[in-house]
Amino acid sequence: MRCLQYLWGMEPQLLKTTVERFLELLGVEVEDVSVSTGHRTLVIVKTPHSKVLIGPNGEHLRSLNTVMRRLVEHQHGEDAANFLIDVNGYHEERMEKVRQNARMLAQRARLFRHDVEMDPMSPYERLVIHELFSEDPQIQTVSEGEGKFRHIVLKYK
To answer: Boundaries of CATH 3.30.1370.50 in the chain?
Structure first.
């Protein structure tokens, strides 16, 4: 079983310990760290210092995720680095706002029978939007642009 867990990502307890230790070295007080495995491995951090870890518009949280993935990738291989850290539910709340905005813009595309461009977003946010409309008979999603300007266009079929 341990080999199978390694193939699909890092063993949950080891991932939990790694994140706890890293946050401890940063001097961040943590109430709880848990790992949820499912469609994607999610490391849930509860802390009274969420502002420090999340930062303005989630910048620190994105950086924390990047640094932790690189650390885990270096120590345990690329397959082990497929996880996401969420602090006090910030990421899930953000994803719900992105989904709501996409649904509203899709309604606009349907109403006016015209393509609608979304604002630039992260690769993960684009993935969430592509999945959201994957079975929609009227809306097709296409990523356009380069780098930090990459965004989704909701195309009316």
So the answer is: 93-156
DSSP string, 59-75: HHHHHHHHHHHHHHHHH
How far apart CA 154 and CA 157 sit, in angstroms, is 9
* C-alpha to C-alpha distance for 91 and 102, rounded to whole angstroms: 16
With beta carbons less than 8 A apart as the criterion, state whether 47 and 6 touch. no
**Residue 124 banded pLDDT, cuts 50, 70, 90:** confident
Distance CA 85, CA 63 (A): 10
* Count of beta carbons in the 10 Å neighbourhood of residue 77: 12
- Condensed to tens digits (0 to 9), the pLDDT of residues 39-95 reads 788 999 999 989 999 999 899 999 999 999 999 999 888 877 889 999 999 999 999
User: Domain spanning 2-88 has what CATH number?
Assistant: 3.30.300.20
